[in-house]
Amino acid sequence: MQHQIQKRTTRRRPQATQTAVSEMPATAKTRTADVPIVSHGASPLARVGNTPLLRFERLAHEWPHIEILGKAEWANPGGSVKDRAAFNIIETAVRSGALGPGKRLLDATSGNTGIAYAMIGAARGIPVTVCVPANVSPERKRILAAYGAEAIWTDPLEGSDGAIRKAREIQAADPDKYFYADQYSNDANWQAHYYGTAEEIWSQTQGAITHFVAGLGTSGTFVGTTRRLKDLNPAIQAISFQPESAFHGLEGLKHMATAIVPKIYDPSLADSELEIGTEAAYDMVKRVARTEGVLIGISSGAALVACLMVARQLAQKENHSAVIVTVLPDSADKYLSENFWNE
Amino acid sequence: MSLKVSIPTPLRRYTDGNGVIEVSGGSVGSAMDSLLQQYPSLKKQLYTDDGRLRSFVNVYLNDEDIRYLQKAETTVKGGDTISIVPSIAGGTSN
Known about the structure:
The structure holds 2 protein chains of 2 kinds.
Chain A: E1 18-19, E2 53-55, E3 66-72, H1 82-96, E4 104-108, H2 112-124, E5 128-133, H3 138-146, E6 150-154, H4 159-173, E7 178-180, H5 187-204, E8 211-215, H6 220-232, E9 237-243, E10 272-276, H7 278-291, H8 298-315, E11 322-328
Helix pairs in contact in A: 1-2, 1-5, 5-6, 7-8
Chain B: E1 2-6, E2 20-24, H1 28-38, H2 42-46, E3 57-61, E4 64-65, E5 81-86
Parallel strand pairs in B: 1-5
Antiparallel strand pairs in B: 1-2, 3-4, 3-5
């Protein structure tokens, strides 16, 4: 019997509004020193980081001496690379006392960081408010709500910059109530990659990495990972990429020339820069799904397009060998309702 | 028929900074043609080389996605608003 997918007959325009959500409950179980407790299994938050490094053999099949590898960041408990930055931002703020009892964590996000804050906040009993453009996918909205975060939907016409402006406004109006995490300016963002992602890549490739490729959003992944990799081996080439124009569908990425440039961004780290088109990323997502059996997200597709551009350039030099590593920010889970799958 | 088109921030560099453009037309398609006549450099941003709306570009007539109406053939009336909203992270809200 054939199953038929029910097609929705209408779709409404997203609106900028606020969703009220219950206050966060409860604290974690406390332990006393005199009662030894044996724990089994892993705490959910201990699963942040240490993601698998996947080898894309079919993508690189033309070039026997070139490897293309990607960190499968969807293996993080919140489903994206953003768990790393969010976890370190929260840990650092709690340690410094900036995020203490009675404060809500506040930030602007186009989705994945919000989900990461919401998940970690739920696990740690920290209330979370996120400003999110109203045109994020329904899947993301439901995930934020499921973790119990408060979401303020901002004008879809203004994109992630509109969400940033809204978060700043909320913080300015009530500075005592909020800890403004500000992932675009917070050093704990790039440091998560300096101490985490880069070390993992170094050890997973046994130091053989020759090229590191990453997209620019907050720029935390590129800046932190590149800094550490270049400490370990200054010969490693760092390649950043961004959308080819201001108007694009590459979720999580920023066109730096026309956007609010993150404070943590350091353009001097890149040995070269690439521009990636939205449609090229869509094609790559479909190609990897159908030839590698991996469902990657749109910015992950863009990352692999960038890796192929690097590989192609290197292959022009005879017998050139290379180990190209990128970060695949998330999987296709949250993009399955996108139009491009049908085109 | 006169109506308005709302332009998202990243596209305003192609509309001399204007966020709302007055256009004319009897359908969404002719209203969009009127927009492109005024600002031809928008075309490459909104449409593929073979003339299809790029898949991350959502066009709403008032609050309804035209892909779920009659697409470019959807009829419009005076005072309607067309919004161009790029999809971030897929799709749009319900």
